[in-house]
Design brief:
The complex is a heterotrimer.
Chain A lengths: L2 E4 L3 E4 L4 E5 L13 H9 L7 E7 L7 E7 L5 E6 L5
Chain B lengths: L13 H6 L7 E5 L3 E7 L9 H4 L10 E4 L2 E7 L2 E6 L10 H10 L3 E5 L4 E7 L3 H6 L16 E6 L2 E9 L3 E7 H14 L1 H4 L1
Antiparallel strand pairs in B: 1-7, 2-5, 2-6, 3-4, 4-5, 7-10, 8-9, 9-10
Chain C lengths: L11 E10 L2 E7 L3 H7 L6 E2 L6 E2 L12 E4 L5 E5 L10 E4 L15 E13 L3 H12 L4 E4 L15 E4 L2 E7 L3 E7 L14 E13 L4 E3 L11 E3 H11 L6 E6 L2 H13 L2 E7 L6 H9 L4 E3 L1 E8 L5 E8 L11 E4 L2 E5 L1 E3 L8 E2 L21 H4 L3 E3 L4 E2 H9 L5 H8 L12 H12 L10 E2 L8 H5 L16 H6 L4 E4 L2 E4 L9 H14 L2 E4 L4 E6 L3 H8 L12 E7 L5 E11 L2 E6 L4 H15 L6 E4 L4 E7 L3 H8 L15 E6 L2 E6 L8 E7 L3 H12 L5 E2 L2 H10 L39 H4 L4 E8 L10 E3 L12 E9 L4 E9 L8 E6 L2 E8 L14
Parallel strand pairs in C: 1-7, 8-9, 8-13, 9-10, 15-22, 16-17, 16-22, 17-18, 30-40
Antiparallel strand pairs in C: 1-2, 3-4, 5-6, 5-7, 11-12, 12-13, 14-23, 19-20, 20-21, 24-27, 25-26, 28-29, 30-36, 31-34, 31-35, 32-33, 33-34, 36-39, 37-38, 38-39, 41-44, 41-46, 42-43, 42-45, 43-44, 45-46
The structure holds zinc ion.
The site of zinc ion has 7 residues of chain A, from loops.
Chain lengths: 88, 196, 866
């Protein structure tokens, strides 16, 4: 079980969190302006690298805030937790 | 309306909770009907305006508690607090405290009365930390937690707000009403080894 | 008797005990394992091979034991434990096992629990080294947890704050981020285990770091008839002497390939075991060790190995076949017979087996390169001389590995699966290195190039009861209950599980069955008045200056124009356009809104709202607060519901114009502070009364009292489902499955064309424009048979498979309004097919149905307006 560093609560068991997938996949500002291919890419396609990966988590059982981390998909090492969308 | 017909979610178990254990092990006590108000502030909210209504400064650090008398303000997340205090007597749709805080906070502050959302169980005694460690993965060691600290976490399979009151140690567990019976039964079971 | 008169640092000779094995009583001492106790009493055959049935004895001394599995029958009982890990107590009763044990058929009433610990250091192994490391760390102010598998912790470290010393505790898993899982056996060694003490405890430790001080794993080599009682690992044989004061044999042949085995020979000789010969496959051995043995008069032969055994009538070893061997392990001369009752074998030492990490264990340390993994007799194949076992636990032989290679299995993982080597409860600790050596030889590759098979936690078997801990029975999963629950229980209502909620299913009177009760409840709501506990619906209060704008983006329909005091139904979709939840939202004031969600989705909806607010639209001023548990809700539905509410709230003007449909009022109801919502999920005139949850039971009882003159009828989820289905109201998650759009549900009326919302863009995707999408329809069945949900719809009965499926039933009930069975279904091109005859296949039988619109009752909605 991963030990995930919440930027606000400190490290907690993975079971307190929900995974939020790849970070940096923004909801298109105007969905109607993107074509079907780009929209499908937004909906369904995520990168899946071997190595460092920017991903989102939300501390659902704790402070309920969203943050991003860098996680190594082989070693599971986690670095650099950062808040999303708000300052502390 | 003269008779208080409020019924705590642990009405059926409060006696059993109170009867178990002793000062050398662990004791439980439900504190029913405490007033609880969740405060959430917009980024630009002047939360200092709440000082007069609360008689305390809201703590800024997530996981810290500010107290005055029997009133506690728990910082659950950035710009999110749970304010708790002793029960109010009259049957009302909304606690007086929630109304006062909403008035004081203005449009940028939400004050939602959640007094019946959770009930309160105090867990105290030399084995209190042991009992919680059977179902809570948060580090509650004195060097990591202590009086004046709080957190939201999972205890057994229930989501709880956990607050440490003193070094006895006494922990205050706030659990959602629908989960209260489950959690009380779990606590009684987890205490078996310590209370004989 | 082979117990020495002194020695054995793990046994307490002041505490004699008696154990029973296969019906016979044996003396032992506290601190013995069942294995050491049996050896001390000369019991050589402890178990039998799983397939061959051949007699087997104790082979190892710990978790590596492949042979000596027993069924523990006393105490809680266990079906299959290695005798080397069973600590004795007075009255221990066990039986030999032929490969597999038997699960007990009586309930296990012992207690099991879990506990969390946090520390800077976990030390695996409580010997002198481990405790020295622990003491140093504790001295630096670190928190330390020491896990020692045996009963005995070295007595060099005092119990102190922040040092947790756990004996009888085996680390079974090490995972990411310092997560260590250990099993503490707390009462298994006690004849009378206290009922209040957990028999076993699963420790969940978060550690800054882990130091493993356990010794390495001893590997044997294989030879013909190497499975007989009397064949044992050499290091284990020596430890039975030093730990338990037990002689594992009287005359030994030591079959060595490493210096430690020669030292073990010295220990055996010191204790009085006669050494028939000490053989070492290596051409040369350290002179000091060899001279030490020869000085005791021992016959030391280098370049020799054991290449077979002879057995007595019980199958136990009475002699070893000894021959000179080449570097491949082939005998180069006729074997010689040496009489012995113990063959102590040791090829090499590998890394510790205890750590519980998921690792590929190396085949052998570099110092042992050149020591063969299997010995073959001169001029013969293995099985002619006797079977050569690679995995004693799985009864898998050298011939099995050879067969695997012949049919093309060359990777260790393939050989493992073909032969089952390494798949036993011992995880092949003694078998995998032999298999790798044999495979290297057969495929002509160096052992180092072979990728070893993977060892996975748990390092030793862990019972399901321990994994469950106290999550059993009533505590298996939380039962969420409403404030009215005590009433429901007192009145014998059957419950339906909805997520974790326990909801009243129906409310039988007398000896009514479910169908009778539900029909009566439905009639009551349609013709009189019914009431149900609706407290489980999710409720979220939204506050802020931008709630209206936010709801416009989240719901498919428009909310920002909703007036204060009014309520609106909304549908929520994921970005892929599929329906995710639905419910009503009331505008409490200019910037306070109260959203309701489905019972099962309350947490998911709150997560969804906050995800958008925190990650995509932080500029919106909206704050969400869950109030699901704060409010108790009583639904009062039916043509007479207005009379009941009027009786409860005499000050509330209930006139159709004063208090219209889809509005709410704050009022005193039954003397309680309440919000009354005029909404309807049944299609009838209906009210939902909300009070703070601690008034819920009082409200419920007063509603029933006030409703008595009107024959108020309690109903449950089943009646609620029937009534809403008659109105064509879909239930998200029952009539939808994550592939259904609002348009598919016939809800285009709720999908705004004028604004942007989450999911809208997806309605332009090709998939969502297909003209053969499944759409919600109603079905009316011929006859009396209710078509169950899940039934497939076909155009014609019978036919040759594969029969094309046109759709499936999502809800099926008896309608008291129609006096016949009806159903909701998702049907290809359903909206164009009203009136068509189809067949619903239920349990092989085709039921004729007619397709209708989903709404089969009061389509004009006149009734809900009262
Ligand atoms: Zn957090």
């Amino acid at each position: 079980m991963l030990y995930i560093p919440c930027p606000w609560c400190g490290p907690r068991d993975e079971t307190e969190f929900r995974y939020g997938g790849e970070a940096g996949v923004a909801y298109p500002a105007d969905p109607d302006a993107v074509d079907d291919a780009a929209w499908s890419e937004y909906l369904f396609v995520r990168s899946n690298p071997k190595g460092w990966f920017e991903e989102r988590w939300v501390h659902t059982s704790g402070c309920r805030r969203w943050f991003t981390v860098r996680r190594h998909t082989v070693s599971y090492e986690i670095r650099d937790p950062r808040p999303i969308g708000e300052s502390t | 309306m003269t008779v208080d017909v409020r019924r705590s979610p642990l009405a059926e178990l409060a006696g059993e909770l109170a009867a178990v254990g002793g000062p050398g092990s662990v004791r439980f006590a439900e504190r029913p009907f405490r007033v609880q108000v969740e405060l959430r502030a917009a980024a630009d909210a002047p939360v200092s305006r709440l000082y007069e209504a609360l008689a305390l400064m809201l703590p800024r650090g997530v996981g810290y508690v500010a107290s005055t008398g029997d009133r506690d303000a728990l910082c659950l997340a950035p710009r999110w607090w749970l304010v708790t205090q002793s029960p109010e007597p009259a049957p009302v749709l909304e606690s007086a405290l929630a109304g006062r805080l909403r008035t004081a906070g203005g449009a940028a502050v939400s004050a939602v009365d959640v007094s019946a959302q959770r009930t309160t169980i105090d867990v105290t005694g030399p084995n209190a930390r042991d009992v919680l460690a059977h179902g809570c993965s948060v580090d509650l060691h004195p060097r990591a937690f202590g009086p004046g600290r709080c957190t939201q976490t999972a205890l057994a399979k229930a989501q709880v707000v956990l607050q440490q009151l003193d070094r006895a140690p006494t922990f205050r567990v706030l659990v959602r009403a629908s989960f209260a019976r489950y959690l009380a039964e779990w606590l009684l079971d987890a205490a078996t080894e310590y209370v004989g | 008797m082979t117990r020495l008169t002194s020695g054995g640092d793990r046994v307490d000779r002041s505490r004699p005990v008696t154990v029973t094995f296969d019906g016979a009583d044996y003396p032992a001492y506290a601190g013995d394992t069942l294995a050491s106790a049996l050896l001390a009493n000369g019991v050589r055959t402890v178990a039998r091979g799983i397939y061959t049935g051949r007699p087997r004895g104790v082979f190892g001394i710990g978790a590596e034991e492949p042979n000596a599995f027993v069924q523990v029958e006393s105490g809680t009982g266990e079906p299959m434990l290695p005798a080397t890990l069973v600590e004795v107590y007075d009255g221990l009763r066990a039986r030999s096992v032929a490969g597999k044990g038997r699960l007990s058929d009586v309930p296990d009433n012992a207690r099991y629990d879990h506990k969390t610990a946090h520390c800077e250091l976990v030390v695996v192994g409580g010997g002198m080294d481990g405790l020295r490391i622990a003491a140093e760390a504790a001295g630096r102010g670190e928190r330390v947890v020491v896990c020692e598998s045996s009963r005995v912790l070295a007595a060099t470290l005092q119990e102190q704050d922040d040092v947790l010393l756990l004996n009888r505790t085996t680390v079974v898993g090490q995972y990411d981020h310092g997560y260590v899982v250990a099993v503490e056996r707390r009462t298994d060694h006690l004849p009378d285990a206290p009922e209040t003490v957990a028999r076993q405890r699963l420790w969940h430790v978060r550690a800054g770091r882990v130091v493993d001080t356990t010794k390495g794993m001893e590997h044997p080599y294989a030879f013909p008839d190497n499975d007989r009682p009397g064949v044992m690992l050499a290091g284990a044989a020596a430890e039975y002497v030093t730990w338990y004061g037990v002689l594992p044999g009287r005359v030994a042949v030591v079959a060595s390939g490493n210096d430690d085995a020669l030292r073990a020979a010295l220990v055996l000789a010191d204790a009085g075991v006669a050494l028939g010969a000490v053989l070492d496959t290596r051409p040369e051995v350290p002179a000091g060790l060899a001279d030490g043995l020869r000085g005791l008069g021992v016959d030391v032969r280098t370049g020799h190995a054991v290449c077979g055994t002879d057995a007595d009538s019980d199958g136990a070893v009475v002699a070893a076949h000894v021959a000179p061997v080449d570097e491949h392990g082939r005998g180069t001369a006729e074997p010689q017979l040496i009489r012995c009752d113990l063959v102590a074998v040791s090829r090499a030492w590998g890394p510790p087996p205890w750590s519980g990490q998921q690792v590929r264990t190396p085949g052998g340390a570099s110092t042992t390169v050149g020591v063969p993994s299997v010995i073959r007799v001169p001029d013969g194949d293995g099985d002619a001389a006797g079977r050569t076992f690679v995995d004693l636990h799985r009864d898998a032989t050298l011939a099995d590995v050879e067969r695997a290679v012949r049919v093309g299995m060359t990777h260790p993982e393939h050989v493992k699966r073909y032969t089952t080597i390494g798949t036993g409860a011992d995880q092949g600790r003694t078998a995998n290195p032999v298999m790798l050596g044999v495979l290297a030889e057969l495929t002509g590759r160096p052992t180092a190039e072979l990728e070893p098979t993977t060892s996975r936690p748990p390092a030793v078997p862990v019972s399901f009861a321990l994994l469950a801990g106290r999550d059993r029975g009533r505590l298996a999963d939380p039962e969420r209950v409403t404030p009215m629950h005590p009433w429901h229980v007192a009145h014998g209502l059957p419950f339906e599980d909805v997520g974790q909620w326990r909801r009243p299913w129906y409310a039988p009177r007398g000896d009514e069955d479910m169908d009778e009760a539900v029909r009566r409840e439905c009639r009551a709501v349609r013709t009189g008045v019914g009431t149900m506990d609706a407290s489980t619906l999710g409720k979220i209060e939204l506050q802020g200056r931008d709630v209206g704008a936010f709801l416009d983006r989240i719901y498919t329909n428009l909310f920002s124009t909703l007036k204060v005091g009014r309520i609106k139904y909304g549908v929520m979709c994921h970005a892929d356009g599929m329906v995710f939840d639905d419910g009503t939202t009331a505008r409490l004031s200019e910037d306070r809104w109260l959203m309701s969600t489905t019972t099962g989705n309350a947490a998911a909806v709150l997560d969804w709202l906050e995800e958008w607010l925190f990650t995509e639209w932080p500029e919106l001023d909206v704050r969400c607060t869950s109030v699901t548990d704060h409010w108790a809700t009583v639904a009062i539905a039916g043509p007479r519901s207005r009379d009941v509410v009027a009786a409860l709230a005499p000050d509330l003007d209930l006139g159709a114009e004063a208090f219209p449909f889809m509005t709410f009022r704050e009022a005193t109801v039954a003397g309680l502070p309440a919000r009354v919502f005029r909404i309807s999920f049944s299609g009838e005139l209906a009210y939902e009364v909300n009070v703070p949850a601690w008034y819920g039971l009082a409200l419920w009882e007063r509603v029933l009292e006030a409703g008595k003159p009107y024959g108020i009828t309690v109903y449950g989820t089943e009646t609620m489902h029937v009534l809403r289905a008659e109105k064509g109201f879909p239930i998200v998650g029952q009539d939808t499955d994550g592939t259904v759009t609002p348009q598919d549900l016939g809800m285009s009326w709720a999908v705004s064309k004028r604004k942007s919302f989450v999911g809208k863009r997806s309605y332009g995707r090709e998939e969502n424009l297909r003209d053969d999408r499944k759409q919600l329809v109603g079905l009316v069945a011929d006859g009396d048979r209710v078509v169950p949900e899940g039934a497939q719809l076909v155009v014609a009965p019978g036919g040759v498979p594969p029969v094309p499926m046109a759709g499936h039933v999502t809800s099926g009930y008896w309608s008291t309004a129609l006096e016949q069975p009806f159903a909701l279904a998702l049907l290809e091109r359903g909206s164009e097919r009203h009136g068509e005859r189809l067949y619903a296949v239920d349990d092989g039988e085709a039921v004729a149905v007619t397709v209708t619109a989903p709404v089969c009752y009061d389509p004009e909605g006149a009734r809900r307006d009262g």
